[in-house]
Structure formats: C-alpha cells, structure tokens
C-alpha cells in the first residue's frame, strides 16, 4: 500500500514504481554549451493561476523559470484555470514555446502533460556532473503528478542515502521549478517543508495536483 499524507498525495517508494512507468516518462534533452557560441537569452512571461511565471532561455533550451512569491492562496479552492502568454509566441525560441505550452497544460489540462514534449534545458547546473544534477534528474524522471517523496527517499534514489540535507540544497537550487517538481519533495513527517516560491505556493501546487488527480480518477 502507498502511504498517504496530509494533502492526500501519495508517497511512492522505489519498489512501487514500475520500470515500465518510469520508462514512459518523457525526458528533455540536456544540452551542452561546449563548442557553441554565446546563447542569446530571450524572456517570456506566462500569466498563470499563481501569478507571473518568468521564463528565460535561448534557441538551445530553457535557462530558468522564476516563480512569484505568494503571500496568500489564490481565491477559491482552485483559482481560475487560465494561462495567458504575454508577448508574441512566434518571436520566442521553440524551447520557450514548449515550456509555456507544458506549463499551460499543467495548470489547465494536466492529463496532457504526459503527451507533451518537455522543453530542452540549457542551464549549467543541469549539464555538469554533480549530485545536484542526479537528484534533479531523478526527481523529474520518477516522481509523477500527484505523488510525493521525502528528502530521505529522494537521496536514496539518487544514490546517497545519507544526503537528505544535500537534497534540500538541490531543491533550493532548482532552476526549472514546476517542470522539475521540487514542490513534490516533502519531509518524512508529512510536513510540506520549504519551497523557493514560498510555502503558500508549494501548498497550492500540491493541492492542485491532488484535486486534479481526483478529477481524473472519477
């Protein structure tokens, strides 16, 4: 049996995640800057149910997603499920268009996220061999929509069961939040733990996934 926690999401252990499930995850390209010229960074703003998401990237891949810091939850159990991209879509590099499309689906039509391609990433942290990269890659690959995992469990999956504190550092350093779902990493006690976008944002994202997963199950 999977262990439920306060928000109704599921803890999932390594034994409970089938190889076929993990293999079905769409994973982005991890591009490298070696042998390429300086990239030209472009910016886009996605108006989402949780505020303005600032996306930066280039023709090679997404650099960062910057979250607003919520002080209060959006009105209602679920904010109006609408997203609007500020600016011209045609002038944006393809990775930014893919990123915006994926985020729009996450908020408005979560069932489509598994079918959409994830944008390629172009950030040094996701290109260099490090424990942080391994943690973020493992999280992206193995912890699905509506699931939760503890810092300790994620450390074990990433290959170092004693590195729960380092996992917390990796979550704080995550340049691509929501897509790399650091909001799904919580304390072993069931407390949600800290989040770069603030605890209110983390609470909203977890509740959003719980509610949407329940709707899909009906």
UniProtKB/TrEMBL annotation:
One GO biological process term: DNA repair
Assigned GO CC terms: nucleus
E.C. number(s) listed in UniProt: 2.1.1.63
Residue ranges of domain Methylguanine DNA methyltransferase ribonuclease-like in the record: 44-119
Cofactor(s) annotated in UniProt: Zn(2+)
Keyword terms: DNA damage, DNA repair, DNA-binding, Metal-binding, Methyltransferase, Nucleus, Phosphoprotein, Transferase, Zinc
Subcellular location: Nucleus
Pfam family, one: DNA_binding_1
Protein family according to the UniProt entry: Belongs to the MGMT family.
Name of the protein in its database record: Methylated-DNA--protein-cysteine methyltransferase
Organism of origin: Gallus gallus
Gene: MGMT
């Amino acid at each position: 049996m999977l262990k439920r926690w306060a928000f109704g999401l599921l803890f999932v252990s390594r034994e409970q995640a089938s190889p076929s499930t993990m293999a079905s995850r769409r994973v982005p390209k991890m591009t490298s800057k070696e042998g390429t010229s300086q990239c030209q960074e472009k910016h886009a703003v996605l108006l989402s149910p949780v505020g303005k998401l600032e996306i930066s990237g280039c023709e090679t891949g997404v650099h960062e997603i910057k979250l607003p810091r919520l002080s209060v939850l959006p009105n209602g159990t679920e904010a109006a499920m609408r997203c609007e991209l500020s600016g011209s879509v045609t002038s944006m590099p393809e990775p930014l268009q893919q990123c915006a499309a994926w985020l729009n689906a996450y908020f408005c039509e979560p069932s489509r996220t598994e079918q959409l391609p994830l944008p390629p990433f172009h950030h040094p942290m996701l290109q260099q061999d490090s424990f942080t990269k391994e943690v973020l890659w493992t999280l992206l690959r193995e912890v699905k929509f509506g699931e939760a995992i503890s810092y300790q469990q994620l450390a074990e999956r990433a290959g170092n069961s004693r590195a729960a504190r380092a996992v917390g550092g990796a979550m704080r350093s995550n340049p691509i939040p929501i897509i790399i779902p650091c909001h799904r990493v919580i304390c072993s006690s069931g407390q949600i733990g800290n989040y770069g976008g603030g605890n209110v944002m983390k609470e909203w994202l977890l509740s959003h996934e719980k509610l949407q997963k329940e709707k899909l199950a009906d």
